[in-house]
Amino acid sequence: IKDGDKKIRIKVGMRLAGLEATRYVGKKGVKRNVSVIFRVNEALLGGGGGGRYVCGFLGRVDDI
After folding, report:
1. Do residues 2 and 24 lie in contact, with contact meaning Cβ atoms separated by under 8 Å?
2. Which of 2, 21, 37, 42 could form a disulfide with 56 if both were Cys (CB 3.0 to 4.6 A apart)?
């Protein structure tokens, strides 16, 4: 990955390892998408962890 390449987006799952990866690649200037989010607190963690985008599974919330 080239540092500062504006065309690269990395999608990571909302897990501890995913948040660690989000922080790591964020320091390299890569934009991140945190996915597999089911709850509001997970979205807040993903965004607070440096995710540029967060993707929630709203259909799953409706199923509950």
Report:
1. no
2. 37
